[in-house]
């Protein structure tokens, strides 16, 4: 059985990622890309769906783990009655797509066992395994091959590869698993110690540029590393999470595939990178964006594949039982075909902030904008599925209209200084004013005295916090203050925010889910805007305390069951950590010093 979501740590090489539990079991790994079929899928089933466990074979007295500072190299220390040993896990930052695991003896002698269950196609295909060299195994299914280089002798039993060995103090045994196309010759072995050292240096070189964020620097740095690990280096695309179908409700149907690049999530990640001074990553993302959305503006999607792929068909995998029985397990995401107006505002805001942050204008961005803005002008009055990608039918979501306003407001500021450009900017401002009037008239419920989730609705939605965060209205506007008070009244659960009340049936799914973590970060950001810094700090510190022992957050949290829910780790949640920490840090700085506070 898989562990708790919060018991996993992330390994990554900016191409793919793995999740490894406190028990030394690597239960999720897709190769060669984030969105490739999993070769270890025990996370969504059981050990027969693929896993790689390395752990002591005798009872454990204690387990502790940590990342080496500024890296994604994980150290798990096992203490038993006979000694102490360390498991070093990483995915080397190199051309070869590998997972490297080193068992190191620290004290005494510790007996270990390995159980390697290699499966392909999300646990469905059992490979043909044969010995290629002494201590080298080759596992092949169709076009794919895994190569195990083992630091100890192995035995085959019932389609498992096992090993038993003892590690003494000062001894290090290396195990690596590498993916390649099956038609290629066996690759030359790489030096495991050198690979760990190079990977350590590369991660630390990246993370050392993280600015000081006061008492939250370590937490921000860990979130920065997590977001970097979720970036697909060959193209600059950024995935929303590295998993699929981890449930938003245990045992429920709210299970989605997040291993793709949402424009919304990726633009927010871009802004987090820029806020921390990482403009190279921001520039790579902008290049990805301009390639992905190029073409007919009517065909612009809300999400794409890692290289900008547009076809992401959704289907169900019947042979996986689902995480703790949550069905169905979904591959692909039909939300790619949805109409979501807010993405235009997210992209325009990101482009605007990128230029203000110092990125040079891209020669293609203005041309694309001249095609997209007329399209948005013709479509902003249409209903959509909204930021939460509901499957209960389109509505006129207030947040979507606010973000359409953002698109025209920011586009006006991006227009060039030519006569034609200024005329275009004036037109954008007129459209923005039209949208603003409509939202204030139809998105505001006079009986309730506040903004509501959708035109004609009585429901609340945490996305309405963006009314202040985007500058649509000042944070101290009485209409927004009333909206904030009602959000706090209706959506707070044990001090954390739901994104909306799923019992209302607005999303077309079975009611019930956890609190949506990024929404609570937005609430803290609003408190900062209002000068309620003590409340903001208290809420942020509560959110930070939800991180697991290695600083990772899922998408949602159940405050009653005290369980993480949803895909993991989640970009949205780590963006929240970075942005709120920066907002709090800046708020604490004297005005004269704020430029130095980021």
Low-confidence spans: none
Strand element count: 28
Radius of gyration: 25 Å
Query: Largest beta sheet, briefly?
Result: 15 strands, antiparallel
CATH homologous superfamily assignment of the domain at 5-204: putative glycoside hydrolase family protein from bacillus halodurans
Strand content: 15-25%
Structural class of the secondary structure composition? Answer: alpha+beta
Give the rounded overall mean pLDDT: 92
| CATH fold-level label of the domain at 5-204 | Beta-galactosidase, Chain A, domain 5
Q: Estimate the global geometry from the Cα principal axes.
A: globular
Q: What is the count of DSSP helices, taking H or I runs of 4+ residues?
A: 13
Helix content: 25-40%
CATH class of the domain at 5-204: Mainly Beta
Report the end-to-end length measured between terminal Cα atoms: 44 Å
The CATH architecture of the domain at 5-204 would be Distorted Sandwich
Pfam families: Glyco_hydro_15, TREH_N
Domain GH15-like: 219-581
Keywords: Hydrolase
Organism: Pseudomonas vranovensis
Layout: helices, strands, pairs:
Blueprint (H helix, E strand, L loop, with lengths): L7 E5 L4 E5 L3 E6 L7 E3 L10 E6 L3 E8 L6 E7 L2 E8 L6 E21 L10 E6 L2 E6 L2 E6 L5 E3 L2 E9 L3 E10 L10 H16 L9 H13 L1 E2 L4 E2 L22 E2 H13 L3 H14 L10 E2 L10 E2 L13 E2 L10 H15 L6 H17 L18 H17 L4 H24 L1 E2 L4 E2 L14 H4 L8 H14 E2 L2 E2 L17 E2 H13 L3 H12 L11 E3 L4 E3 L5 H18 L10
Antiparallel strand pairs: 1-2, 2-3, 3-4, 3-5, 5-9, 6-7, 7-8, 8-9, 9-14, 9-15, 10-11, 11-12, 12-15, 13-14, 16-17, 18-19, 20-21, 22-23, 24-25, 26-27, 27-28
Helix pairs in contact: 2-13, 3-4, 3-5, 3-13, 5-7, 7-8, 11-12, 11-13, 12-13
